[in-house]
Automatic annotation (TrEMBL):
<dbReference type="InterPro" id="IPR015421">
    <property type="entry name" value="PyrdxlP-dep_Trfase_major"/>
</dbReference>
<dbReference type="InterPro" id="IPR010969">
    <property type="entry name" value="Cys_dSase-rel_unknwn_funct"/>
</dbReference>
<dbReference type="InterPro" id="IPR020578">
    <property type="entry name" value="Aminotrans_V_PyrdxlP_BS"/>
</dbReference>
<dbReference type="GO" id="GO:0006534">
    <property type="term" value="P:cysteine metabolic process"/>
</dbReference>
<protein>
    <recommendedName>
        <fullName>cysteine desulfurase</fullName>
        <ecNumber>2.8.1.7</ecNumber>
    </recommendedName>
</protein>
<dbReference type="InterPro" id="IPR010970">
    <property type="entry name" value="Cys_dSase_SufS"/>
</dbReference>
<dbReference type="InterPro" id="IPR015424">
    <property type="entry name" value="PyrdxlP-dep_Trfase"/>
</dbReference>
<keyword id="KW-0808">Transferase</keyword>
<keyword id="KW-0663">Pyridoxal phosphate</keyword>
<dbReference type="Pfam" id="PF00266">
    <property type="entry name" value="Aminotran_5"/>
</dbReference>
<dbReference type="InterPro" id="IPR015422">
    <property type="entry name" value="PyrdxlP-dep_Trfase_small"/>
</dbReference>
<comment type="similarity">
    <text>Belongs to the class-V pyridoxal-phosphate-dependent aminotransferase family. Csd subfamily.</text>
</comment>
<dbReference type="InterPro" id="IPR016454">
    <property type="entry name" value="Cysteine_dSase"/>
</dbReference>
<dbReference type="GO" id="GO:0031071">
    <property type="term" value="F:cysteine desulfurase activity"/>
</dbReference>
<feature type="domain" description="Aminotransferase class V">
    <location>
        <begin position="3"/>
        <end position="372"/>
    </location>
</feature>
<dbReference type="InterPro" id="IPR000192">
    <property type="entry name" value="Aminotrans_V_dom"/>
</dbReference>
<dbReference type="GO" id="GO:0030170">
    <property type="term" value="F:pyridoxal phosphate binding"/>
</dbReference>
Amino acid sequence: MEVYFDNAATSYPKPDVVYDKMSEFFKNNGVSAGRGAYQKAFQAEQAIYNTRKSLAQLFNIADPTRIVFTHNITEAINLALKGLLKRNDHVITTSLEHNAIWRPLKELERDRGIEITKIECDSSGQIGIDKIKNAIKDNTKLIACLHASNVVGTILPIARMGEIANEAGIHFLLDTAQTAGVYPIDVKKMNIDLLAFTGHKGLLGPTGTGGLYIKEGIDLKPLKEGGTGNNSTSEYAPKELPNRYEAGTINTVGLIGLGAGVNYILEQGVEKIREKEVRLIDYALTKLSKVNGVILYGDKNVQKRVGVISFNLEGLDHADVAYKLDSEYNIMVRSGLHCAPNAHKTIGSFALGGTVRMGIGYFNTKEEINYLIKALKEMERMEE
């Protein structure tokens, strides 16, 4: 039996339609979108626009052209932070952040003199709303945070945070790496000004895809300039979106796969996907809590977390646990700090070098969870 529990890193398997649509494009089209005045080039361009429309529907975005495609969510976050922040700007973030947010902020602190306030979350990953309110200053430009932790799965109170940002007249950047496609997101209701997403996790697309929604009225300095396939006589990047931020040949086949994944989600319904995820989280946490020596991290309320579960086994190194699960049971999990050292300091696992991380996906089953539990119990008995 082969079991994949690393969906927090990338989802696998994908729906068959994702493989089929990508293969179909490669075999029957395969041309560069937006770079030719012939039929296949127009078809490729239309396919990319259809992906924008599907994403706009998923996130309740009125204008699909405000969605800019990138190679991954890290690039999208870098575009948002480096394109928006100027010297002496103040940013509020949290102690749960992935390095995709934290490292660019530290670079900007060093190179541009921005100011960072890191709000400490509690050991379950929850954050106090009053702490955010009290951190706002005259020079505060942005609240930047993840939607849900990639370490413990805790969901932050995004709607309230967006409301606070809106009332204060500051921007709100949301990292949806662990929530897009598995949790309902509405940029209007949540007051999200900048939404960064990755294509290869909950959106069920391939790697090499991601993007950034930029609310109307926000002008970011591009990360790169070059050919855009339009207005080539100008020596400068175009002003209109999405071309302003999409210089160079775009990942057409990847974005077609992403579109297929998003359409699959829309057909299934995000609410249905979320309901299944909650059932599996509840089942996994209940089973894990009954294994001797298991230390669980994160909020105990399954409604306040996504399918990311971190744990350790007393007396065993997290890396050894992950290695044995793979080599002896063919179970794939992740171990270590998960590119989020501050989060591990927050939950108390940093000194241990991290945790074993289980990432539940839409195609996982209770039978697979039972197999993991069986393996952990056998490993625990061997240590006695």
